[in-house]
């Protein structure tokens, strides 16, 4: 009798489970399964509405992707003893079940980006690990992606349950301001290496949390509302190597902007208010190898002393700015990648000198940038410039053009002056005549009558 009751209970449980879990008995006929270095389960865009009831049989680490499905509630994951990487982006997820990782001892990677999660779902209870010895264990996650949800705050002790977290992506949420709770939570990330806070409308970077991130090597602050390079970056200057500040309201780059930092990569693209890069801006960045300053429509000048003497870069992107000239400001011969197209460059001797210093791997490219001769309005490919531009012959030709232009300008000024004088005189005469005529009309006495004597003839 007990046996039958147990079987009945099992069947009822299976029926109820199938309502909230996806039947996985033939999942490899629906999804793509590959057994290589890891067991890969690809269930992207399969119209799934629930988490699987069981994982396919595997004896290796598991990589399971469920992108572009319609899983409103993320239920407790099935059991696995192996390391797991799970991807659930673009799934319309709104809710997370408590203890959803309690069956997975070694989850290392979780992508929940581009969903509908709110602050209320980001809780310790939902992310707690397996229950062991009367308590819930921390989860072994190293990479957590919560980008593009509806999160505006994080509980203070949220990250205590993931002490090994190295990468955190919070891009595109609703923070605007990092409130005290969020600051405490982020400040507790003892092993964090990569932090993405892009596209959150932040206007500042609070010192209360940033000063504790001593292990941080990469920080993305792109697409926020920063006016200046945050001075609080000095707190993490020891290990920070990659800094992304693109698409902000930064309008000034000076010798104080990056002082104290020791960067290897710096991204300053799409800064619509930036007009000038001042002297010594990058001079302190001795180990800088990749510099991207592109898509800045108001940037017309990069000071010739913006870099230190003989400073070397591997990659330099100055494309799509409003630069009219590029000075001999660094060691051009060491560059591996250079982009200067879509500027307002003038063909000058200095530009020619730079092209001769560049490695042939750069100057041989088919997409050579263009420059314009200032007085001749002739376009030419930068990498096709020749030594004539630096010769006396070329200089004298420019001088002749300049002299002719000056003569024409003087003649035009004289003609305009004469025309103005004549016009003024004509206007004065017209005014005088008008006033005289007006005075004549308003004279109060009748006009004088002249009489001619009439001679009478005496008879």
Automatic annotation (TrEMBL):
Q: Where are the transmembrane segments?
A: 407-432
First and last residue of the signal peptide: 1-17
Keyword Repeat part of the UniProt annotation = yes
A cellular component term from Gene Ontology for this protein is: plasma membrane
Alphabetic keyword roster: Leucine-rich repeat, Membrane, Repeat, Signal, Transmembrane, Transmembrane helix
UniProt keyword annotation of Repeat present: yes
InterPro entries according to UniProt = Leu-rich_rpt, Leu-rich_rpt_typical-subtyp, LRR_dom_sf, LRR_TM_domain-containing
Name of the molecule in the record: Uncharacterized protein
Q: Which organism is it from?
A: Psylliodes chrysocephalus
């Amino acid at each position: 009798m007990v046996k039958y009751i147990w079987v009945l209970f099992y069947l009822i449980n299976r029926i109820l489970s199938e309502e909230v879990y996806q039947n996985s008995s033939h999942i490899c006929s629906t999804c793509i399964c590959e057994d290589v270095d890891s067991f890969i389960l690809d269930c992207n865009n399969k119209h799934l509405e629930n988490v699987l009831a069981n994982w396919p049989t595997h004896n290796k680490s598991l990589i399971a992707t469920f992108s572009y499905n319609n899983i409103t509630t993320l239920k407790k994951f099935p059991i696995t003893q192996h390391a797991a990487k799970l991807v659930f982006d673009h799934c319309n997820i709104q809710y997370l079940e408590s203890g959803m990782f309690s069956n997975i001892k070694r989850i290392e990677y979780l992508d929940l980006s581009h969903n509908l999660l709110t602050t209320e779902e980001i809780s310790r209870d939902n992310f707690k690990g397996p229950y062991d010895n009367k308590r819930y264990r921390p989860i072994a996650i190293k990479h957590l992606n919560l980008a593009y949800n509806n999160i505006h705050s994080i509980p203070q002790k949220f990250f205590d349950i993931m002490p090994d977290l190295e990468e955190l992506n919070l891009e595109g949420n609703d923070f605007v301001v990092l409130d005290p709770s969020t600051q405490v939570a982020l400040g507790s990330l003892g092993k964090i290496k990569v932090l993405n806070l892009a596209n959150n409308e932040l206007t500042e970077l609070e010192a209360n949390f940033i000063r504790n991130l001593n292990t941080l090597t990469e920080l993305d602050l792109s697409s926020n509302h920063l006016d200046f390079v945050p001075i609080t970056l000095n707190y993490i200057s020891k290990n920070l190597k990659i800094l992304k500040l693109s698409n902000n309201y930064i309008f000034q780059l000076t010798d104080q902007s990056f002082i104290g930092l020791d960067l290897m990569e710096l991204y300053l693209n799409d800064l619509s208010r930036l007009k000038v890069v001042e002297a010594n801006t990058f001079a302190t960045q001795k180990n800088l190898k990749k510099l991207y300053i592109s898509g800045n429509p108001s940037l017309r000048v990069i000071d010739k002393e913006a870099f230190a003497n003989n400073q070397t870069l591997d990659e330099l992107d100055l494309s799509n700015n409003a630069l009219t000239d590029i000075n001999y400001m660094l060691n051009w011969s060491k560059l591996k990648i250079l982009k200067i197209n879509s500027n307002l460059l003038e063909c000058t001797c200095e530009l020619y000198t730079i092209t001769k210093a560049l490695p042939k791997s750069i100057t041989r490219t088919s997409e050579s940038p263009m420059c314009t001769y200032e007085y001749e309005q002739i376009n030419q490919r930068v990498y096709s410039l020749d030594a004539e531009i630096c010769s006396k012959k070329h200089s004298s030709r420019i001088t002749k053009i300049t002299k002719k232009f000056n003569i024409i300008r003087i003649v035009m000024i004289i003609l305009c002056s004469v025309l103005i004088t004549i016009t003024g005189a004509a206007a004065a005469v017209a005014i005088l005549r008008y006033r005289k005529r007006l005075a004549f009309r308003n004279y109060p006495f009748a006009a004088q009558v002249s009489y001619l004597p009439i001679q009478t003839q005496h008879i």
